[in-house]
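User: I'm new to structure prediction. If I give you an amino acid sequence, what do you actually give back? Let's try with this one:
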Amino acid sequence: MLKISPIPPTPTEIRAARKAVRLTQAEAAEVVSVSQATWKKWEAGVHRMPPASFHAFQMTAWKFGGHK
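Assistant: Good question. You get back a string of structure tokens that encode the predicted 3D arrangement of the chain. For your 68 residues, that looks like this:
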């Protein structure tokens, strides 16, 4: 069984994960079904990104990114 870390990712980790797959904030938000405003707040450190959302992004974002 795959374990998801209970510790929320840092804003730096969130930004790095998004940039690694070459997605805009709007595109990254779409991957995990949130608004761009929510994604921006996660990257700015205004709100914490749920660990499950970060895991979902890491597992699926490669399908959407890297095509630019």
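You can read the tokens as a compact description of the fold. Here is one thing that stands out. The chain has a mean pLDDT of 91.
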